[in-house]
Amino acid sequence: MTDTPTVRKRQVGRILRELRERAGMTHDDVAGRIEFSTAKISRIESGQNKIVVRDVRDLLDIYGAPDDLRSQVLDLVGQAEGPRYWQPFERHLPKVQRTYLSLESEASLLRGIDMYAFHPLLQTTDYARAVLAADWRGGVDDTRRAQLLALRVARQDLIGRAENPLGVSLFVDESVLRRPIGGVEVLREQLHHVQALVESPHIDIRVVPTKVGLHPGMDGAFTLLHFDEPDMEVGYVQHRDGCLYLQRSRELDELGRRIRTLEALAFPASATAGFIGYLMGEIG
């Protein structure tokens, strides 16, 4: 998927489509009134096109949008094309990762499973530094690594902000809680951090115990993003050479099936803090 619509773009597109249909106009009708191709109109309505304020104003004029709705749409345009928290780090990020960060920043709920390390949204600074230091791929120098660490810290505002924080519902393989990334002291601090996070009403972390044997996470970690915009979900699977975005119904259904299986296998969320306390007792 080369160009994923963000939620704001999709909202703008949906409203414009509804206004066009309410006006009884086809794509051809609109194209005859403005210097747009029908393909461009379709891309705008599906959230795939870069939003240009002038274009949106022209379409609102054609559809005779009322003033209050016009203001609402133009506000959404400003949000869709406004600055992102990750833009200071943009030169260190490939386009596919920028796309993911845009989607994650507009999501209402993030679900998934992590198999080898805690999710970046849950990591302490020292733990994140150790994860980045363990990146054995070439081309990651100290400057880029420092920028990526600063990005991870900035990213965590999504779950820490006071207004509309991102909801998190994650499964984590038990091995992650035992793996001393950065050493025992760093792991202990990380476990304390997660223990505190699960007290937040919008954060749900469940441990998949080793004793269950094989489970759906063994096929690889994945993330499923949910949005307030109707009928919009995006699956994300990262691998060594890049990532995959999943939006087809059958793909999303499969991720949903894996999550339901994990729900049946994992400890309840209410047990997470206690289990972490037990593990810290083992660590000493």
Structure commentary:
- InterPro entries: Cro/C1-type_HTH (IPR001387), DUF5753 (IPR043917), Lambda_DNA-bd_dom_sf (IPR010982).
- Pfam families: DUF5753 (PF19054), HTH_31 (PF13560).
- This is Helix-turn-helix domain-containing protein.
- The chain has 284 residues and is α/β, with parallel strands linked by helices.
- It has 2 domains: 74 residues, Orthogonal Bundle (434 Repressor (Amino-terminal Domain)), CATH 1.10.260; 152 residues, Endonuclease, Chain A (2-Layer Sandwich).
- The chain is 50% helix and 13% strand.
- The chain has 13 helices and 6 strands.
- Strands 3-2-1-4-5-6 form a 6-stranded mixed sheet, with helices on both faces.
- β5 and β6 form a beta hairpin.
- It is elongated and about 75 Å long.
- The model has no long low-confidence stretch (mean pLDDT 89).
